[in-house]
Amino acid sequence: QVQLVESGGGLVQAGGSLRLSCAASGLIFSTNTMGWYRQVPGKQRELVAAITRYGITNYADSVKGRFTISRDNAKNTVYLQMNSLKPEDTAVYYCNARRLSSGQLLDYWGQGTQVTVSS
């Protein structure tokens, strides 16, 4: 059974920093692309950042230069370092694991962690 458990969310003032962590179990972590998504009420979930099994990263334009995604395959954990936070970064942040298996895209999600940035 795949489990993704996020931690590190909370309330922070604008300009501050937070570090999200996602601990994965029940999958071969190193073979998955790991990502962070976020969602606010009434809007679609959007990609924030992703990192492939080869360490290639991809960021939403809105977070480039402020957020950094990284992974530790030895700890089965992916991180999102968020600096210079803005009120518009307020959302529930979800961890995602994704891989192709026999031509089928497999997606797994965590339960989400709330990030609130006050102005």
Write the layout of secondary structure elements.
Elements: E1 3-7, E2 10-13, E3 18-25, E4 33-39, E5 46-51, E6 57-59, E7 67-72, E8 77-82, E9 91-101, E10 104-109, E11 113-118
Parallel strand pairs: 2-11
Antiparallel strand pairs: 1-3, 3-8, 4-5, 4-9, 5-6, 7-8, 9-10, 9-11
Description:
- It is a single chain.
- The protein has 119 residues and is an all-beta fold.
- The protein has no helices and eleven strands.
- Strands 2, 4, 5, 6, 9, 10 and 11 form a seven-stranded mixed sheet that branches. A four-stranded antiparallel sheet has the order 1-3-8-7, with no helix packed on it.
- A hairpin with a 4-residue loop joins strand 7 and strand 8.
Could you give a short description of this structure?
The chain is mainly beta. The protein has no helices and 11 strands.
Q: Tell me the β content.
A: over 45%
Poorly predicted runs of 5 or more residues:
none
Separation of the first and last Cα atoms: 40 Å
Structural class: mainly beta
Count of alpha and pi helical runs: 0
Quickly list its features.
single chain, 119 residues, mainly beta, 4-stranded antiparallel sheet, 11 strands
